[in-house]
Amino acid sequence: MAIGTAFSLAFLLLGSGLTRIRAQGEIRWAGDLQGGEPYVFRDPRDPAKLVGFEVDLMDALARRLGLPARFVQNDWSNLVPSLERGDFDLIVNGLEDTAALRGRILLSRPYFTFAEQLVVRKGSTLRTLDALKGHRVGTLASSLAHQILRSRPGIEGVLYGGQEEPYLDLQLHRTDGVLLDSVIAARYGLTKPDLEMADPDVARGTYVIGLRKGDDDLLVKVNSILEGLETDGELKRIDERWHLPVLPAAAAASSPPADEPPPATVDLAQVILFLQGAGLTVIISFLAMALAVPLGLLLALSRMYGRAPVRLLSHAYVELFRGTPVLLQLYILYYGIAPVVHLSALAAAILGLGLNYGAYESEVHRAALQSVPPGQGEAAAALGFSRWQALRLVLLPQALRTALPAMTNDLIALLKDSSLVSVITVVELTKQMTITAVDVRSWALPGALCAGLYLLMSYPLARLAARLEARLQGPVEQAVAVAAT
Amino acid sequence: MILRVRALSKSYQGRPALSGIEAEVERGETIALVGPSGGGKSTFLRCLNGLTSFDEGEVQIAGLSLAPRTSPDDPALRPLRERVGMVFQGFHLFPHLSALANITLAPAHVRREEREAAEQRARALLQRVGLGDRGDAMPAQLSGGQQQRVAIARALAMQPEILLLDEPTSALDPEMRGEVLNVLRDLAGACTMLVVTHEMSFARNVATRIWVFDQGRLVEDGTPEQVTEHPRSDRARSFFRPSG
């Protein structure tokens, strides 16, 4: 037993992929179910079962390998780092062959060739990438289409995490075009009645299987199986079964993927992008907090002094916004209500975080108001102050002083929570980090830079919170001096 | 007559706290409200400016009348509270404001006085309570006795027709009680005062009348001499002569 373990450990270290998967007794392959149809997704009739053209491909591959295949769910944007960690053996999920990726992991021969297709609103006059200069074009982050857009100066690329959202935003006039591969365009874009194809063959690319570096013997095996599947027509049968789009007849693509830029390095241009991301993080956080604090005060006051229906409403607001994920709230603000209220991504981000944090700030205000001794209110009443005057002149100035450290702490939390707004296409600091990490093929430097910038922003706030707290416990006149500044 | 109370009663969850109080006060009088703890004297005092509501009876104070079951938050109470000042056992100075600002806040915002005039009068009042040089001090920088004197000045700044003082010296060390009692002694006569107190010498020497409260009843109402030397009720007798 011990010897067996030692052997398999040795194989692991030697990096023989074939030996490893045989020792495992299965081959583990990863994709993201969120990618949905037609790649790999849950069978609508039997959600316990996975279906899709990549499931069929893996079934065929595993059969010829003589090992059972096991699917591993993994977030699409993190497939490569997870592969490198050893969470699974293969990436089979619409992985595109790019030079950047080639430098980092092993890639198999293609199992599907697609065209990058430009989709626009029906009747739009902007029908080529050249015409779209100065306009916003949606695509998936870290995709080949994203690289193509970035090689076209003047086009503002808008990045999404899922395939549905770029076309939704195109319908909503938030963008003027979407560049994505033909599989996605056929399923998600051209199925919408108000969208149409503008350029069916902007460029060509291929889906390949990704393998860990060092698994060269496994790569040879996978390639020979793929070649076999192609020659005996099984690949074609799978494509047809899933109605995958056939390549347009037009021969040469206008801009072949070969002219893609060399891998980026963390240079001054990248640092400037990071600083811009950090700036956006600061703007979003401070504006959201500037909304949350007065909103929270209003909620707290309605809950403490309002009539029964107002009290109930404010209570319901707090429970609703505290009890549901802010991510969901952002989605609803940006996509859910878009047909009625059309918000820009930045506005939706600030509003979403502000509305959410308002619920938390209302509890901070409420606790602070309740911590003011009851004698203060009585003294004010006995002097003839109205309730509003007592609140404004006597109770609130004292409560605010108590609330200030807690609010500063919440601002620090908000600074970091603001990274969530990347789901609605805002490229703030964290999103910039993940984009750069893919570009430069490393998480280390971008990650450190990102962490450094967050610390730079949050540390002064943390010090401020600590000072406010200390003064709160110290003599009153000092705390007042701080509150007044 | 500045205060007339008729058949005032109040109970807390069925337990009577005040029953059938009848009382009258003339302008310029100083009344000492004494009696055992829980006897109802503080509750009675708080009924007079509406901080506590009462169930039955009638209160006429400073020319205004106060109805039973008036909520302490009722805006209708505001004119009454402008004319009836109150000083609390725990001072309740506003901790975020200087002594001077504590005094000018109500004149400036309730009576909308000119800031200049309000400050001038506040300084005079501070002088009067012996704190002419502490106007800029924050409450936390003042001793308990000083804080209570500022609180008295704060109440006086509204130029009340009657001043209610709820155990103004009970939270103070013995040496500070004297300075507050001296201020009250100086005020006596110039201002109508109702003082809930345990200071028997103050009650004897300064008050024009002493009221003894026991078990929610006003059991004794007379001059200090009458009440302390010839009490009519057994309760008052045992209260003033615990040993005999």
For the report, how would you describe the main beta sheet of chain B? 6 strands, mixed
Quote the CATH topology of chain B: Rossmann fold
How far apart lie the N and C ends of chain B?
A: 37 Å
* Unreliable stretches covering 5 or more consecutive residues of chain A: 252-260, 475-485
Main beta sheet of chain A, described? Answer: 5 strands, mixed
CATH class of chain B equals Alpha Beta
Specify the helix fraction band of chain A. 55-70%
Structure commentary:
The complex is a heterodimer of chains A (485) and B (244). Chain A is α/β, with parallel strands linked by helices and 485 residues long. In chain A, 56% of the residues lie in helices and 13% in strands. A five-stranded mixed sheet of chain A has the order 4-1-5-12-6, sandwiched between helices. A five-stranded mixed sheet of chain A has the order 9-8-10-7-11, sandwiched between helices. In chain A, strands 2-3 form a two-stranded antiparallel ribbon. The longest helix of chain A is centred in the middle third of the chain and has 38 residues, at 268-305. Chain B has nine helices and ten strands. In chain B, helix 3 packs parallel to helix 5 and helix 4 (115-128) packs across helix 5 (144-156). The longest helix of chain B is centred in the middle third of the chain and has 14 residues, at 115-128. Chain B is globular, with a radius of gyration of 18 Å. The mean pLDDT of chain B is 93. The chains are: A alpha/beta (485), B alpha/beta (244). At the A-B interface, helix 15, helix 16 and helix 19 of A face helix 2, strand 6 and helix 3 of B.
Summarize this entry quickly.
With about 475 residues, chain A is an alpha/beta fold.
What's the helix and strand layout?
The complex is a heterodimer of chains A (485) and B (244).
Chain A (H helix, E strand, L loop, with lengths): L1 H13 L2 H8 L2 E5 L9 E3 L2 E6 L1 H13 L3 E5 L5 H7 L4 E2 L7 H4 L3 E2 L4 E10 L14 E5 L3 H7 L5 E5 L3 H8 L5 E5 H8 L5 E13 L2 E2 L4 H16 L2 H8 L26 H38 L2 H16 L2 H11 L8 H26 L3 H9 L4 H31 L11 H12 L3 H30 L2 H9 L1
Parallel strand pairs in A: 1-4, 1-5, 8-9, 8-10
Antiparallel strand pairs in A: 2-3, 5-12, 6-12, 7-10, 7-11
Chain B lengths: L2 E10 L2 E11 L4 E5 L6 H7 L8 E6 L2 E3 L11 H6 E4 L11 H11 L5 H14 L15 H13 L5 E5 L7 H14 L4 E5 L3 H6 L3 E6 L2 E6 L1 H6 L4 H7 L4
Helix pairs in contact in B: 3-4, 3-5, 4-5, 5-6
